[in-house]
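ok so I'm stuck.
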Amino acid sequence: MNKISCIICAYNEEKRIWLVLNALKDHPDISEVIVVNDGSTDDTTNIVEQYDFVKLISFEKNQGKSKAMSAGINAAQNDILMFLDADILTITPTEISELAKPVLENKADVTFSLRKNSLWIYRQLGLDFVSGERVIAKKYFDNQTEEMSSLPGFGVEVFMNRIIIKNKLRLQSIDWKNVLVARKSAKLGFWMGFKGELKMIRQIHKVASFKEMLTQNFELLKLVGKK
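replied:
not stuck anymore, here's the structure
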């Protein structure tokens, strides 16, 4: 059976990343876990180093998620990749299995998570277009990581969406009914969190216009359940 390389990009996630790593420990579908520490200034590095199964890549300064993810992809040894955000809450090995299973069983080419606190409209549609939790074959990133690394920090998911749409990949959305992601307001406080959300939106729109974002949503929905 194929095994998966799991890539986690982390910036100042000392309070949360251990929850994700605990869910991955000894998981039968995961043979490699790579954490890219994107210039954290808190205790993230020391916490990750306590997990001897993790391959740690550290940036001295914060480079942004796109560059961190590119580094993780380039370091991965397996044919299938799982991407997890470092700030997921209440995740268990069950959710890891749910995300991996359709790809491992060749029932889908890519899976997205749909978290309990994904945006209301995403939950109504049944697909979170900017989900940070995905499983996809590494081959789709061949000759792509250099361009990916040059993107604004939060532009990587819409860049990945282009790859999925171009290749007409079979997509499944995995409903994580009990999984939450920590909002920036909870991590940074209301005003700093609000500014962080605005920064994220601006960076996304540097990669894709509002029109392209709408088009991506439509095209991805057409791929859900594709045979």
